[in-house]
TrEMBL record, chains A, B:
Protein name, per record: N5-carboxyaminoimidazole ribonucleotide synthase
InterPro entries in the cross-refs: ATP-grasp, ATP-grasp_carboxylate-amine, ATP_grasp_subdomain_1, PreATP-grasp_dom_sf, PurK, PurK_C, PurT/PurK_preATP-grasp, Rudment_hybrid_motif
Organism: Pedobacter cryoconitis
Sequence positions that bind ATP: 107, 145, 176-179, 184, 263-264
Pathway(s) of this molecule: Purine metabolism; IMP biosynthesis via de novo pathway; 5-amino-1-(5-phospho-D-ribosyl)imidazole-4-carboxylate from 5-amino-1-(5-phospho-D-ribosyl)imidazole (N5-CAIR route): step 1/2
EC number(s) given by UniProt: 6.3.4.18
SUPFAM superfamilies, alphabetized: Glutathione synthetase ATP-binding domain-like (SSF56059), PreATP-grasp domain (SSF52440), Rudiment single hybrid motif (SSF51246)
Cited PROSITE patterns: ATP_GRASP (PS50975)
Lineage: Bacteria, Pseudomonadati, Bacteroidota, Sphingobacteriia, Sphingobacteriales
Length: 379, 379
């Protein structure tokens, strides 16, 4: 018999909430987990079988850490790719593959990949410096995105007029046409090394404009079947073009004229899949483990309507976190609390999420609104 | 604001699979967990924030361990009660309460409690020695149970004739009339300190006669509503009579003439509630945490038909565990694997459980039968 999942060691680069929820699932398979994270109080610290406090962007640290594992995965894209490539050369299984992370790390290369593979996406242009931006004839208004290291709304700004360029990033950037969208949607697709592919049902997102973060996520979507199928097909096409092993979150826009445009990719468990823990037969975390260990993929169907709500640090609060209203929201049926084990809160920090499951979609949304008003992370 | 669950420390006596699944749930609340277990390779070892290898029956060890926690609970009844009583005197919250554990630890006192509180149960007699058994006029055949420390089919034997008494226990025992039962059932009831009480829907069990262990558990039951209500009312009455805080599993028989008789109690998460992780809105583990921290109890309704199957060590295998057929069963939709992190298997050792969830009850049972034939724990 080949080595089984219960005998293998999974190395995870990054020890945040995504790693934490991955470990919660890994426990069910007796999987040994190793985590590398620069924060000595990372959410995974007490859960991993082995926790190393160290840089995930340093070649030597990542390489030496990876040598200890049988399979290496990520919960954040900003990792040292060269070390992963070296580990792959030496026969380690790195999923998603280093070349996939390299491509996705850079929003410019990501966009070019879309173009080369006929993946629908908003028109764009690349710029290396602020000077390039000033010389560009790309029409205002547009979105300006740093090619690397942006996340959770950071590294993104809207440029309305040439005057806004005063504060623009002076680093390799991507200029993107503003999309007049009706809805932001996401599809998570998974693929194992045998080439088995499954998508989770398409979900709809509501954004908090101020925080530039997903506020509500609603699953499943109520868009017509053919729209959902189109979104799921796009996700599958991207997974196939990337030849990825693991999970891939595909964020898309539905424009007001009915087009679907791909916004961004994440080759790992993603905020847009948290609701799957309770809302779907298989969770995105279980599915990621199945994919990277080349096990049969699980049933992605929705069990129930699910609304996911990010729990963000309250404005004006910075310090040891307290969860005001927690007891009140736990009195509501079908409410699942997921706190991420972060000791300190700060404005808009992702401190946890709440999933609401209800047979009635409107009731689930109503509960989500009530919870949003009730639960506050203060210090 | 009073101290919140995320700021509290839960001490768990026992570090087996029940503690392990309790910790998986506790992670969602940022709860700090401390575990005491005599086995340095206990399933909880790598998951608890603090793990202590030590005796759970020794006064000093339990007392000192308990001093470190805010709330103390158990995952096994065989613990040092005197230490828990002392901790209660000093103001620690011990849930279930020490007096409840004391009562349930002793099957003789448990039966007397049933009698005093008009809880229906099979006729019985107590015996202190083998001599008492030989002198008893209790009619054969009967079940002979050791009053203390029996579990998983150990400490129980069937006495058909006086000749069987040669091998009988020579310790305080309980003689119990054989129940001609149609079905073994269970109801888990939970109660918080505010007195809020909720029962999980009644489940049906199928036993493996050879291992004397639950083999299949089916949720929810298909017995008529009035039978289920009666079972749930009995469970609530017991919880009220005990004035328990926490979870209480009530194992019962439905006799061929339609009576419900209580068999045994367990004041903690229980094998008969494992299916609730995926099969019900709230899991027994979440509910136990809610109860002991005096939080609102969750929605116990079944989401789907669920069948739970214990994964037992194969006969003739003793050594490092391998899970034959695991990949095959993971290819079946709605199948959830829970391995308990035990390195070594031995015949009939509980190594894990599998839950099968399906909208069709018969399909779920069929899948369970297939899994039983496919998955083998060997060495």
């Amino acid at each position: 018999m080949a080595k089984q999942i219960s005998e293998l060691k999974l190395g995870i680069l990054g020890g945040g909430q995504l790693g934490r929820m991955l470990i919660q699932e890994a426990i069910n398979y007796n999987l040994t987990t190793l985590v590398l994270d620069p924060d000595h109080e990372a959410p995974c610290k007490n859960l991993a079988n082995y926790f190393e406090c160290g840089s995930i962007t340093d070649f030597d640290t990542v390489y030496k850490f990876g040598k200890k594992a049988d399979v290496i995965t990520i919960e954040i894209e900003k990792v040292n790719i060269e070390a992963l490539e070296q580990l792959e050369k030496e026969g380690k299984m790195v999923f998603p593959q280093a070349r996939v992370i390299r491509l996705i790390q850079d929003k410019g290369i990501q966009k070019q990949f879309f173009k080369e593979n006929d993946i629908p996406t908003a028109p764009f242009q690349l710029a290396n410096t602020k000077e390039d931006l000033l010389n560009s004839s790309f029409p205002f208004p547009y979105m300006l995105k740093q090619r690397k290291d942006g996340y959770d709304g950071k590294g993104v700004m809207r440029i309305n007029t040439i005057a806004d360029l005063d504060n623009a990033f002076d680093s390799p950037c991507l200029i993107e046409e503003l999309v007049d969208f009706e809805k932001e949607i996401a599809v998570i697709v998974s693929r194992n090394s045998n080439g088995e592919v499954k998508t989770f049902p398409m979900v709809e997102m509501e954004f908090n404009a101020e925080a530039n973060l997903v506020e509500f996520l609603i699953s499943p979507s109520t868009y017509p079947e053919h729209v959902q199928e189109r979104a799921e097909t796009i996700a599958k096409n991207i997974a196939a073009a990337l030849n990825i092993t693991g999970l891939l979150a595909v964020e898309m826009f539905i424009t007001k004229d009915g087009q679907i445009l791909v916004n961004e990719l994440a080759p790992r468990p993603h905020n847009s899949g948290h609701h799957t823990i309770e809302g779907n037969y298989v969770s995105q975390f279980d599915q990621h483990l199945r994919a990277v260990f080349n096990l049969p993929l699980g049933d992605t169907r929705a069990i129930n309507n699910a609304v996911m709500l990010n729990v963000l640090g309250e404005k004006g609060h910075d310090g040891v976190a307290k969860y005001q209203g927690l007891e009140k929201i736990m009195a509501i049926d079908g409410v699942y609390v997921h706190l991420y084990g972060k000791k300190y809160t700060k404005p808009f920090r992702k401190m946890g999420h709440i999933t609401i499951v209800d047979q009635n979609r409107e009731a689930a949304i109503e509960k989500a609104n009530l919870i949003k008003e009730t639960l506050k992370v203060i210090s």
